[in-house]
Specification:
By secondary structure, the protein is α/β, with parallel strands linked by helices. It has helices at 6-22, 26-38, 42-61, 89-103, 148-151, 164-179, 197-207, 219-232; strands at residues 2-5, 71-79, 82-85, 128-134, 139-146, 155-159, 187-195, 248-258, 263-270, 276-280. The radius of gyration is 19 Å and the shape is globular.
Length: 281
């Protein structure tokens, strides 16, 4: 049994929150470069260039890339041979978020009650944490700083099985079309298919943790990702909504078995500031 201290987790999470907001990952920066090559709109090219320049300024000056420093969302894989010692992992992650968002001068965006009072918690907690138990003795933590503007463009539908592939395609394209410029394109589109009402939303969010360019291992779903990306970029929304060919940088699809009477589908949109970090202990 391998032991990992809660204190180590707290300190690591604090750094993850700060670094995720200061430094855009390489997959996003590379996607900006590819977007500049593909974009036919002069304005669109300029927008992508500005986004790349903003990323450079944020990294150099160690300041947030975007003023919306997001809801801290975690996907935590705990090896079945791992034991957390000297504390509680939930508390460690929460404290790491609180310290990271305070010490990193990151905007605190979380309210303690969604409907009544809506008082800011003051430290961007509590975070959202998804745990899964996996084989082995490793602990893997994936973190995303999920902005509110793109999150608000999420959509979920319980389609009929007879709607099939075309029904899923139409739902995704309509969701992106209706979102328009609101989620700060170019976007990354996460799609969940199958499972249940709550599972499909989880799948859509989890898919966004995959790097840009990473394709689903099932060739049928990989082909669907590429087709959706091509059709989304034909919508003409373009960078920042000013028109053009680069509306989306990528599309990710995750799926799960579902009930014979159901075909759940969810869309979770990520803005161009796809801020994610991954650490393995």
């Amino acid at each position: 049994m391998r032991e990992i201290s809660a204190e180590n987790i707290r300190e690591t999470v604090k750094k993850m929150c700060i670094e995720a907001n200061y430094y855009l990952p390489d997959d996003v920066l590379s996607a900006f470069d590819e977007g500049i090559k593909k974009e036919v709109s002069t304005v669109g090219k300029n927008v992508l260039g500005i986004l790349k320049e903003n990323a450079s300024i944020a990294a150099k000056n160690q300041i947030p890339y975007c003023q919306d420093t997001g809801f801290a969302v975690f996907f935590v894989e705990i090896g079945q041979d791992v034991r957390i010692v000297e504390g509680d992992i939930n508390k460690a992650i929460k404290e790491g978020v609180a310290e990271g968002y305070t010490e990193g001068y990151l905007r605190k965006s979380i309210v303690d009650n969604p409907l009544f009072d809506r008082k800011n918690t003051g430290n961007n907690t509590p975070p959202i944490i998804h745990f899964s138990i996996v084989p082995g003795d490793k602990l893997k933590i994936k973190m995303a700083a999920k902005g509110g503007g793109s999150e608000n463009m999420s959509r979920l539908a319980m389609l009929k099985p007879a709607d099939g592939v075309e029904g899923v395609k139409n739902f995704v394209l309509n969701a992106v079309s209706e979102a328009g410029p609101n989620p700060c394109p170019p976007i990354i589109v996460g799609v969940g298919i199958g499972g249940t009402f709550e599972k499909v939303a989880y799948l859509a969010k989890k898919s966004l943790m995959r790097p840009i360019g990473d394709r689903n291992k099932d060739p049928r779903y990989a082909a669907l990702e590429e087709e959706l990306l091509e059709n989304i970029n034909k919508l003409g929304i373009g960078p920042a909504g000013f028109g053009g060919k680069v509306t989306a940088l990528d599309v990710k699809v995750e799926w799960h078995p579902c009930h014979i009477a159901s075909l759940p589908v969810a869309v979770n949109i990520q803005c161009h500031a796809s801020r994610h970090k991954e650490i393995e202990f």
